[in-house]
User: Fold this.
Amino acid sequence: MSAWMCGAMATASQAPGVAALPVRHKALLTLGLMLAMMMQILDTTIANVAIPHMQASLGATIDTVSWVLTSYIVASAVAIPITGWLADRIGSRLLLLASVTGFIIASMLCGAAVNLEQMVLFRVLQGIAAAFIGPLTQAAMLDINPPAKQNMAMTVWSMGAVAGPIFGPIIGGWLTESYNWRWVFYVNLPIGLITFALLFAFLPTHPARRRRFDGFGFAMVAIGLASLQLMLDRGEQLDWFDSAEIWIMLGIAVAALWVFTVHMITARDTIVSRSIFANANFVAAFLLIALIGLVVFAVMALMPTMMQGVFGYPVIDAGLLLAPRGVGVLIAMIIASRLITLVDQRAILIIGFAIMAWSLHMMTGWSLDMDSRPIIVASVIQGFGIGLTFVSLNVMAFATLDPKLRAEGASLLNLGRSIGASVGISLGASNLARSIQTSHADLSANITPWTMPPMPAETLGQYEPVGVAALAMVDAEINRQATMIAYLNDFHLMMLATLAAIPLLFLLRKPKEAA
Assistant:
């Protein structure tokens, strides 16, 4: 076990009132750590409202522009497992400072991208730098607080994580409308510089030490995840399993992940501790976090394009309408943190997932003639459900886990969330594109020369250019209706995925029972 991982959570022998790494200016350091986490989470949401503008500027289509989001998430997922090894190798302080610096530089490059290929490349670099920020800031928050205050420290750290979804859409919408979509990346410069200054001045570190790097295991994870993501992103363009390329990428992903599984079981030194998977609560929490990431990030990616492309909201209004979800998350996290020791966490989780499913069911009833009120109501309710599940899952995952494994567990939970988010965004975009085509064909079948008031289509075609313009208007309305139906189909799919997760909750056990 690495020194960084052992220091991330206090061991049982640590005095309740003594922090693993005491610091003099804990408040300023806490601010720096929260800013780092907020900046990293902010970039998973701030770019969402600018996606339609990026699509036009970068020459991307509705299904390929999702690579701007998924490339960032997958790069983070691939890099997360080596966090502990790198922290041991160069020290946690140096790694976090390097990550913040790399994140700032990659953000500037994203803002300067001129085509989709450049944007995806720079987002990959940004995602790699972001991968280490979450686990390292969480470990640092635990290091600088005594065990008796670590639950509160995690609540404060989570507030920084929640601030991203709250302010991301608003800031992204305002910057895109007032300046340019490129400023959703340039805004990281001032935030990053303040963060770097605070961390450089006050962040302590564990001493670096050499340990063996499981290069083979890491290579298998990277190849497996990358192949899986390429299959998901290119599936719609290549007509899925009618394409030999999709079969090849699926085969590579399955083979690489299978080899990694065998390697994890048989090898002496592995990139992830095997003992962590012997904890049933943690494994169930990992699967549930992945499902939450699938649903939440898919919806967050779909909403901005729907509000701007279908409802015609300006980008700043779209950002404001997305913010209430974060408010609901924040309120629920505060309530859930108060109920940790009073209520069975499994009951809270069931309620949280039921609330999320209910909000998605509400979204399947949206129509083109509604105002913004249903969007705000559904977003707040959905955020409340997310907040309940997020806090309770973390409590259940770590309550029965060996303290020496908790930091590594945090990295794996981030990995599960990232994988789920990547799959959700890709499937959402793919299902959207296919549903638009199917719905357009179904609606067009009902448009005949005898159903065109006040004049048949055959007659309209004779009155050019007025007739042609009228037919174009009819086709535009069919496209609009088909697109709305496709979004509702996506929301219905996300609702089913949320309901499917509820049986997994019964795999969780109370901490006392599991102990």
